[in-house]
Amino acid sequence: MKAFLRTAAYLLVILLVFTGSVSALSAQTKDVFLSDNGGEFVRYKTNAKTVAEFFKERDINEDDIARVNYSYDTPISDYLMIKVRRAVTVSLHIEDNDAIAVKTRSRTLEEFVREYSDETDKTFDYDAALAGDELTDKTEIYLRENFKTTAEEIVTLPYETVYVQNSDALTEEVVSAGEAGRRVIRRELSYEAGKLAETTVIYDKVETEPVKRIVFTPTDKSVSSSETETISYEGPITFKATAYTLAPCCVGQYYNSPYYGLTASGMKARVGVVAVDPKVIPLGTELYISGYGYAIAGDTGGAIKGNKVDLFFDTLAECYQFGARNVEVYVIK
Fold first, then answer.
1. If DSSP codes are grouped into helix, strand and coil, which group holds residue 244?
2. Can you say how many angstroms the Cα of residue 157 is from the centroid of all Cα atoms in its chain?
3. Residue 242: which of 319, 328, 329 has the closest Cα?
4. Rounded distance, CA 333 to CA 329, Å?
């Protein structure tokens, strides 16, 4: 009898342990409902503790998820209703280029364009009527880039030919070759939807003035055309000529001076602008200087008094090479 009671008690203990284990296991299993990519809710039993673990159970890669209605660390509870929207791969056409596959978590075309613009730091135009369309793996997207660029135009400025009647000239003599000028125009071009929408001039400057071609002719020479000009002159008059450039040692100004490069007449210092004594030659007078060429009296100098002229050169080396010498100055009327 004692043996029977002992056996019965042993079986009862085993039954209680087994029942408890089943109850504990049953308590860990939860019923979860999942709507995958807009589909109907499907019931799943899971032992996962969080939404992230549940996705791992179902072999759902987090990189493929565009949106989910719960955070990944949300605890699993009975009858939890989880909605998942998967990322899609669209075919993207930019301008007339071949399509490229782009994986996106965007829900609509408008969202995609906004996010793609942020990623590429560019702006695009698209069919606004399709802005709210939901994206799928079959979606074809066509974009036109909006951008700005610049274009530069170089305009060659023709030089004038000036005929100077000279009683000493027996035949025509070119005493100064003409040089064409250079005008630079830069424009900003704005493109919208792949088409030029606006043009704005952002820079327009004559960077190099044309230099006149000077021809000496006998006094009986008469020239008249749209490209030439017959002029009279006074001289020649012998002047003592020196040379200067924009080096501080020559002009007494440093590069950071607001007056750097400006002459007494307000003109910018350049080849062809010379310093004179305005009591002898008024500022603005056109000149022809032997060995230098066509010039304009545009500057003054403390040491330039009487029949002295200071000739501008681009470099200090040219100034040293020229030195100081006598020149013949013709005052062109």
1. strand
2. 28
3. 319
4. 13
**Token reading at 319:** 């100034």
**Would the CA dihedral through 161, 167, 171, 177 be positive or negative?**
negative
Percent of the chain with pLDDT over 90: 21
CA distance 31 to 287: 102
Q: Which two tokens stand for residue 117?
A: 């613009």
Rounded alpha-carbon distances, angstroms, from residue 87 to 37, 42, 114: 9, 20, 16
DSSP class of residue 226 equals T
Is the CB of residue 300 less than 8 Å from the CB of residue 283? yes
> What is the tens place of the pLDDT at every residue in 142-176?
888 887 888 888 888 888 888 877 666 667 788 77
Signed CA dihedral, 214, 215, 218, 223: sign only: negative
Q: 211: which strand partners?
A: 179
Sign of CA dihedral 13, 14, 18, 19: negative
| 285 vs 306: CA distance, rounded Å | 16
